[in-house]
Amino acid sequence: MKCDDAMRRIIEHDDSAGYPVILRLHLRRCARCRAEAERLRIALADLRNAPLPVSDIDVADAVMVEIERLESYRRDVPMYNWVGGGLAILGGIVLVSFSDSLAWLQSSFGGNFEVPLSIVLGIVITLYASAFIATHLDMAGNWMAKRRG
Ligand SMILES: [Zn+2]
User: Fold this and answer.
1) Which residues surround the ion ligand 1 when the cut-off is CB under 5 Å?
2) How many domains is the chain built from?
3) Ligand 1 mean position to 67 CA, how many Å?
4) Global confidence as pTM
């Protein structure tokens, strides 16, 4: 075993009792590695006996104050954008039956094309309505509270 390999293995083990036999044989023959292993053992023992640094500053309150000062990531979309988007989707659903593209698709795929198209458009409007409701739960809660009296 070369000295580089011996040092790597010494560093891997923090306890000399776990040294492999080949490393122990090298340490018996090599005074330089034996001295280095002894220095590492002493350094580890000093580290184990040293008291942990105790921080006398409580940073939890300062961290919480900074977190509360952070701006919310929520982005408010104006109501007219929601209404406009919903009207655009509804208009698209109505107008798609008059489009040339739909006529071309029907000539290519036949009448079976209308059912999947209706399903997709239904999913789109449902997802839009779900997104609107999910982002306006507080408004819906206030409205429900007013209705209850
Ligand atoms: Zn050596």
Assistant:
1) 3, 6, 30, 33
2) 2
3) 54
4) 0.44
| Residue position matching structure tokens 């198209």 | 117
Q: Ligand 1 centre and the CA of 33: distance in Å? A: 4
Residues 75 and 80: their CA atoms lie apart, in Å, by 15
**What is the identity of the amino acid at 138?**
D
Q: Are residues 43 and 95 in the same domain?
A: no
For residue 38, report the distance from its CA to the centre of ligand 1, in Å. 13
Domain that includes residue 121, residue range: 79-148
Q: What is the pLDDT of residues 2-18, one digit of tens each?
A: 899 999 998 888 777 88
31, part of any domain? yes
Question: How many Å lie between the centroid of ligand 1 and the Cα of residue 25?
Answer: 10
pLDDT the model gives residue 72: 67
Neighbours of 33 (CB within 10 A): 22
